[in-house]
Amino acid sequence: MERKLSMWCKNAKIEMIRRDLKTTELAAKLDMNRSYVSSILNGRVYSAPAVKKISDYLGIADSDTTTV
Q1: Can you give the pLDDT at residue 48?
Q2: What's residue 32's pLDDT?
Q3: CA 10, 31, 55, 15 torsion-angle sign
Q4: How many helices (H) and strands (E) does the chain have?
Q5: Domain that holds residue 27
Q6: Measured distance CA(2)–CA(59) in Å, rounded
Q7: Does some domain include residue 64?
Q8: In this structure, is residue 22 part of a structural domain?
């Protein structure tokens, strides 16, 4: 069964596209591992502190993560 992305995941990806920002670049800016950031952005892993850090950097709400 296919997993649906949460609104937070979608919003994060949309903002990254708007900024022409790759996952590798985002991870480097936040001093995080690229595969870990990718897992969070794709809803495979959930970490409240990491979601907050990414949300703050991208300027998006971190409150829409209930279905990550």
Answers
A1: 96
A2: 98
A3: negative
A4: 4, 0
A5: 7-58
A6: 28
A7: no
A8: yes
Q: Record the tokens describing residue 56, joined without a space.
A: 């703050």
* Residue 47 forms part of a structural domain: yes
Phi, psi angles (nearest 5°) of residue 40: -70, -45
Buried b (16+ CB within 10 A) or exposed e, 29-66: ebebeeeebeebbebeeeeeebbebbbeebebebebbe
pLDDT value of position 60: 97
Under-70 pLDDT residues of the chain: 1, 64-68
Q: From CA 7, how far away is CA 68, in angstroms rounded? A: 8
- Measured CA to CA in angstroms, residue 5 lies from 2, 29, 44 at distances of 10, 24, 9
DSSP state of 60: -
The CA distance from 42 to 9, in Å, is 6
Quick count: other Cβ atoms within 10 Å of Cβ 8?
Answer: 24
